[in-house]
Amino acid sequence: MAIANKHKEISYASPRLGGEFELGINENKKLTFPFEENSKSRFWGKLRYWWCWLAASAMLLFVATPALLFLWIIRRRLWLYPLALWGAKTWLKACGARVEVSGLEHLKEGEEYVFISNHRSYLDTAALFRYTGKRIGLVGKKELLKVPVLGQGMHFVNIIAIDRSNPERARRSMDKARKVMESGYSFGVFAEGTRAMPGELLPFKKGAFHLALQTGRPIIPVAIRNTDWMMGKKTGVAYPGTIEMTLLPPIDTNEYSDARLMELLNKTRSAIAAELAK
Fold first, then answer.
1. Into how many domains does the chain fold?
2. How many Å apart are CA 64 and CA 217, to the nearest integer?
3. Residue 36: which H helix or E strand, with range?
């Protein structure tokens, strides 16, 4: 498979799928990678899919709801964070997902980062939140705020919803994210703004890069593989498997300015694309 780019092309061999294909890396456009659909039974895949959401609903009802009420009463909202980490890990296990993380050696103790990741599945959110090795907040979609219990819990653990249809509200949300980082948190952002279809990498939005430049924090590009065939967008199925999450070397944002934001964006995106192509 070849993905054309008038500026620069790099050929990659795919040991998983065989053959070579090319990636254009200088343009912020949709990329499509070689992709094999899961050959397992769709019947069992659908059953597992609904089991995943039944497990999530039970955890929200019987664990999160009492915890939220109690912590709200005693005014200790951030005490929910360890429970949220447990919830993310437990839900991934319930879905049959194991997580293998590489690249943790790139992280320095006492340093905060902006983790920028690709996004193909709901599984990505739990994996990024639980397994970066840092105390982390996340940027999510405004629709999540409407989910009972989950929406309230998001505020407790510094998950900030972005209303991309309203530039002023989006700016205020990113300002809040900056203040959270200044209090000692790292932040995770799915820069595509939505889940991509299986095998795709969508264009990146600029918000995460503004956040990194405003805070002066390094960017950690994150490549997440396998979640598209495990629980991909619009598939309606879920399969057990191993999520491979790779933390790539940090990018020093102090070398960049607002005028070079697109250069920073393309450097981050090309690092993720190259890793996804392996």
1. 1
2. 32
3. none
Gap between the Cα atoms of 124 and 15, Å rounded: 23
- Pairwise CA distance, residues 11 & 27, whole Å: 16
Asked whether the beta carbons of 140 and 154 are under 8 A apart, the reply is yes
Q: What's phi and psi for 254, nearest 5 deg?
A: -65, -15
**In which band, very low, low, confident or very high, does the pLDDT at 51 lie, cut at 50, 70 and 90?**
very high
Tell me the per-residue pLDDT of 166-213, one tens digit each, with 9 for 90 and over: 667 777 777 888 888 888 899 999 999 899 999 999 999 998 999 999
Domain of residue 142: give its range. Answer: 44-276
Q: Percentage of the chain with pLDDT > 70?
A: 87
Q: Is residue 18 part of a domain?
A: no
What's the CA gap between 15 and 219, in Å, rounded? 28
Tell whether 178 is covered by a domain. yes
Rounded to the nearest integer, the mean pLDDT of the chain is 86
pLDDT digits (tens, 9 = 90+) for 76-133: 888 899 999 999 999 999 999 999 999 999 999 999 999 999 999 999 999 999 999 9
The reply to whether 14 falls in a domain is no
Please give the helix or strand (H or E) that residue 187 lies within, else none: strand 186-190
**What does each C-alpha distance from 117 to 57, 130, 156, 240 come to in angstroms?**
26, 14, 23, 22
Closest CA to 268 of 237, 241, 247: 247
**How many other C-beta atoms can be found within 10 angstroms of the C-beta atom of residue 258?**
11
CATH code, domain carrying 173? 3.40.1130.10
